[in-house]
Amino acid sequence: MSLEDFKLRRMKLIRFSKYQYLVMILIFVLGVIASISLFPFLQTQAATKVSGIDVSHWQGSINWNSVYSSGYRFAFVKATEGTTYVDPEFTTNMQNGKAAGLYMGAYHFARPSSNSPEAEADHFVNVAGPYIKNGYLRPVLDLETGTSLGWSGLSDWANRWMQRVLQLTGVEPILYVSTYYASNLQFYLTSYDLWIAHWTYDPNKSPNTGKWSTWMFWQYSDKGTVSGISGYVDLDVFNGDLSALVSQAVIGGGGNGGTTYSHYLVFEVTASVLNVRTGPGTSYSKIGTVRAGQQYVAIDAVQSGSLTWYKFWFDGAERWCAATGYTKVVPFANVVKVTAGTLNVRSGPSTAYSIIGQVHSGEMYVKYSSSGSWYKIWFKGSSSAWVHSAYVISQPVPADNYFVFEVTASVLNVRTGPSTGYGKVGTIRAGQQYVVVDVVQSGGLTWYKFWFDGTARWCAATGYTKVVPFTDVFEVTASALNVRSGPSTSYSIIGVIHSGELYVKYGISGNWYHFWFKGVTNAWCHSGYVKSVS
Description:
By secondary structure, the protein is of the alpha+beta class. The protein contains 7 helices and 37 strands.
């Protein structure tokens, strides 16, 4: 090869190397741009799992609004331990967390070496029962002790606890265990959904689930920091997105932000002006008012202090007002449910009127007038709020809709029909609770229909009763079931109840339920012939 050929080839190689270098730089830059473009997508993919926490009294007073604002959407709260302990912050946490918008659930810390599973399950349901219903997370057994029973014995204990809670509530619990327990418990427990405790401190890793092939919840850290909570808190994720959380882990598949409400009622404001707040208590912010004569649909009721509070749609969002003494329940009529994803509310019956707000799919309002294709509803406390009828559907009285009332009068007559013209068959007294299955207006009074003595009876409602949170209701499944004066067959029969009747349980003794019947406080029936309802 001549010197000239060598120089020429060398110059070509240099030019080719420079070309390769430029191509490499271009590829690198394009890769960076692509990764930046994909970053939001990758973030979205990683963020499909829903974040949550679990707490007890050790976290002290919690600002649940701050927790929600930080992106957490569910929380499990310690309710009970053993057969006597009740977490002192349980009720406060459940009510405030739900009011802030989180899905809330209760858990029981087990002491298998000390107690029977049935006794611990009964204690748990007695305390947590008001929160084992539609809109709340399924209950949880927290199994961290009991290996002295052996793995076979401990597995049997856990299974019996789970089955007892299922029998009492109609809801199958979730099992919380560590990786160590998940690897050693009997395989048949894998039929229950798993909440696994495996502290990797990184939710993007995968937990060791032992004998389980998958998990529902994962506690990945015991040292989390969350706005609104002092000190460390456990961090959890749900294995799916928010819609999956609702469908798989929320009782009834609805609740906060959902559209499934098994129990709701229509109430009318009786106070001249009543404040509407962001949560169930006077400490929550006031955002508006409702006035005498206006009607709304209550989708939940909670007790806060001495007042019962109603949750209802007010301004396209779920709000609260004090119920006791300020409202009355009225017959269910003219309720419409929104079918559009988002629907404008206008100040008059046409699109020429201004938009004053929006309502959303699943929300329910009371229609009290119409004009052409437009419905007039109560909205934001306004008497001039209109929606187009094509985007709502009228709601019939639900066949299984009912709620619980408590007597506030010292003595209240029970009658065979809804007026004082009907015969009196007995009395009920202050503090007793019953299940309302119908409401009618007669004269100036609202009347409640309820099961009293194995038959549907009536009492005057307005001024003599108050609606209370739906809890501890059972339905008779036997065609005829004896009611006894004590918790065994050795006690005398005081009456008979029948399939489909509903009563409020207020105590348990072994396999027997204590409930109000014929206005007496000592009425018992066997739990094997009834089922809990939510």
